[in-house]
Amino acid sequence: MISATVLLIAFLGTMGLVLENAFRSSALAALNGRLLQQVYGLLSVTEDNDMTVLLPPALTDPLMNQLGSGHFGLVLDDRGTLVWRSQSAMDQALPSELVAALDETVATGVPRAGVVSDGSDKLRYLAYRVQWLGERHTGLYDYVVMEQSTLLEAEVEGFRARLWGWLAGIIGLLMALQFVVMRWGLKPLGAFTRDIEAMTEGDQRALSGPYVQELAPLAQTLNRLVDHERQQAARYRTTLANLAHSLKTPLSIIRNALTMAPPMGQAEDHRAEIEVQIT
């Protein structure tokens, strides 16, 4: 039972780790997809003038308009200069790691995801470089949407707590069921053991049963073995009794002969008589 319990815990523990990693990967992919949709939303409201691109100060996404929401939108030109930021990013400094990452030469239309540090917090970002070809202006621009990493971690942590809670409950339930099944399955073996002990102590002569199908052949074999041993012991007792009876008469004669000491001249005749009785 201990080995089965260890295997059960190891299996469910491994399954829990696999599910947790799969959920994290799925949540990260969903986050990147959501950030990309937000980038497309920014592109859809972009206009231009003779100098640069223009975006409205307020967006349809309320999280982009609220300070402290953990969601930020930025637009930078090809020199790394901030062109536009969402209202939620008004108190947010531009991370130097992000500027360094955007300096890399990449093709336009290719989303890039990563993590940058923002003091005590980490931000997950998705950058999308576009070649703006407007009626009045052209240029390269990086559209960046960021989200605090704690939001993803909180989602993963919530799933982890629910997952391991359910797995712990399943382990406990399976262990209880295993205990009940083993108690029920070993009950015939307990009755079989008690019958053997009773037969050993002489309270019963044979294993009478009834027993389950798996134990019935063993009971029959043990009964035959016990009967054989009893017959063998009976034969030994009979043989010893016959031997004792056979020795009784010669020994009596020898004893009588010894009690009646012969005269000195008849010792040889007396010895010959004893040898005849012995042989």
Would you kindly provide a brief summary of this structure?
The chain is built from five helices and seven strands. It is an alpha+beta fold and 279 residues long. The protein folds into two domains: 2-158, Beta-Lactamase; 216-278.
Provide an overview of this structure.
By secondary structure, the protein is of the alpha+beta class. The chain has two domains: 2-158, Beta-Lactamase (2-Layer Sandwich), CATH 3.30.450; 216-278. The protein is 57% helix and 17% strand. The chain has five helices and seven strands; from the N terminus they run αββββαβββααα. The protein has helices spanning 2-44, 96-102, 149-200, 216-259, 267-278, and strands at residues 47-48, 53-54, 71-77, 82-85, 111-118, 121-133, 138-148. Strands 4-3-7-6-5 form a five-stranded antiparallel β-sheet, with helices on both faces. The chain has a two-stranded antiparallel sheet with strand order 1-2. Strand 6 and strand 7 form a beta hairpin. Helix 1 runs antiparallel to helix 3 and helix 4 runs antiparallel to helix 5. The longest helix is centred in the middle third of the chain and has 52 residues, at 149-200.
Helix content: 55-70%
Second-tier CATH architecture of the largest domain: 2-Layer Sandwich
Q: In what range is the share of β-strand residues? A: 15-25%
Give the strand line-up of the largest sheet.
Answer: 4-3-7-6-5
Structural Rg: 49 Å
**Net shape:** rod-shaped
Number of helices: 5
* Total strands: 7
CATH-defined topology of the largest domain = Beta-Lactamase
Structural class comes to alpha+beta
Please state the average pLDDT score: 83
Number of domains: 2
Q: End-to-end span in angstroms?
A: 68 Å
SSE string: HEEEEHEEEHHH
The residue ranges in which pLDDT falls below 50 over 5 or more consecutive positions are none
Q: What is the makeup of the main sheet?
A: 5 strands, antiparallel
CATH class of the largest domain: Alpha Beta
